[in-house]
Amino acid sequence: MPKDSPTPKGSPMPRKAAPLRLRRPFAAVLGGLALALTTTGSALAADGTFVWIGPQGKAYAIDNPPDGKCLAMAQEARGARNRTKKPLVVYTKKRCAGSALRLAPGRSAPANARFASVVFNPR
Fold first, then answer.
1. pLDDT for 40-78, tens place per residue?
2. Extents of the domains making up the chain
3. Among 82, 72, 70, residue whose Cα is nearest residue 123
4. Distance CA 44, CA 7 (A)
5. Is 103:80 a contact under the CB 8 Å cutoff?
6. N or C, which end of the chain is more exposed by having fewer CB within 10 Å?
7. Is the four-CA dihedral 9, 12, 14, 18 of positive or negative sign?
8. pTM for this predicted structure
9. Are 91 and 114 in contact (CB under 8 A)?
10. Is the CB of residue 52 less than 8 Å from the CB of residue 60?
11. Nearest 5°: CA angle at 62, between 70 and 107?
12. Domain 46-120 bears CATH identifier 2.40.50.180
């Protein structure tokens, strides 16, 4: 075959090696992990809603908060209401430090009781 002739149809052309594409497999793994966590999430969460009053008297809520994890409030928080099925503890300082107030399921703190962090279903 002469040098100038095009490569015949059906014959393989030399190609450069394509760079590995890790995005799709990585995304698939993350998607599977997210699905696994959402399906088992109810076992690791305090079913129900935690409600509190924030700045300017506005009500805020977290649905199905995670068990055993200390959550710091980003803004002023007071009047905690435990509408979950598990106990919780609110603290006067960040990182679940300071004075603690334990709230059983269905119980509320006084409306003016301020707190800076909370842990659900404490160990």
1. 444 568 899 999 999 999 999 999 999 999 999 999 999
2. 46-120
3. 70
4. 62
5. yes
6. C
7. positive
8. 0.64
9. no
10. yes
11. 80
12. no
